[in-house]
Design the sequence.
């Protein structure tokens, strides 16, 4: 059983659309990360959350600790947002910070 | 802005050969990690390192793997005798402190191809 589940696995959107990617997890966590992976493979950290909501530009991340669920929203999507978005959690009580990753959501934004 | 760097970006090796993947974490960071991602699969934790010793390792990190911080700046992952299934993208990451609320910074990755 995967400890971190993401949906959808693949998402195609038209430029300008509002996008939501979901992440559910089954373990107790101390933090949840949203990461972006471009076709070249590099990983960039977008957000780290332990509660509530964070916003950076057109990106918004929310987390509901009681429901063990997080969402990543992209407003006014653009083709340059095309990437794989990965949810990863830090296991509560685990040692120094290793992350458990979801399989990722591949987003393609068409012009 | 400080960043984690990794070299080489791509390494091709023959099965059975030793490889060393290099990482330079951000200079004031204390905790270091290696992850790997086999093509088409999710990223997996390999090992974490703090205070010059391994703090945790996964089942993947067997006797063929070792890590070292030889000079206070580099953080290396050595695979002693590579197998075909070691072909993957290897990511180094670091965080400033070990508290659960600190952000993890990733390097750009090294793509290892074992022939």
Sequence:
């Amino acid at each position: 059983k995967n400890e971190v589940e993401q949906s959808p696995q693949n998402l195609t959107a038209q430029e300008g659309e509002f996008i939501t990617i979901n992440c559910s997890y089954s373990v107790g966590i101390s933090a949840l990360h949203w990461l972006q992976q471009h076709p070249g493979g590099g990983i960039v950290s977008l957000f780290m959350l332990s509660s509530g909501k964070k916003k950076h530009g057109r990106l918004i991340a929310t987390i509901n600790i009681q429901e063990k669920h997080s969402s990543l929203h992209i407003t006014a999507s653009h083709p340059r947002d095309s990437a794989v978005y990965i949810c990863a959690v830090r296991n509560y009580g685990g040692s120094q910070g290793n992350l458990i990753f979801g399989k990722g959501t591949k987003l393609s934004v068409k012009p | 802005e400080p960043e984690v760097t990794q070299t080489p970006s791509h390494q091709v090796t023959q099965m059975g050969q030793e490889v060393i993947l290099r990482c330079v974490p951000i200079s004031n960071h204390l905790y270091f990690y290696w992850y790997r991602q086999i093509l088409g699969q999710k990223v997996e934790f390999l090992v974490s390192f703090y205070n010059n010793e391994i703090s945790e390792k996964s089942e993947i990190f067997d006797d063929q793997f070792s890590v070292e911080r030889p000079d206070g700046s580099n953080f290396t992952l050595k695979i002693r005798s590579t197998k075909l299934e070691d072909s993957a993208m290897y990511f180094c990451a670091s965080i400033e402190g070990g508290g659960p609320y600190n952000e993890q910074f990733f390097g750009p990755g090294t793509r290892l191809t074992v022939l």
The first strand of chain B starts at residue 5 and ends at 7. Residues 12 and 113 of chain B are 5 Å apart (CA to CA).
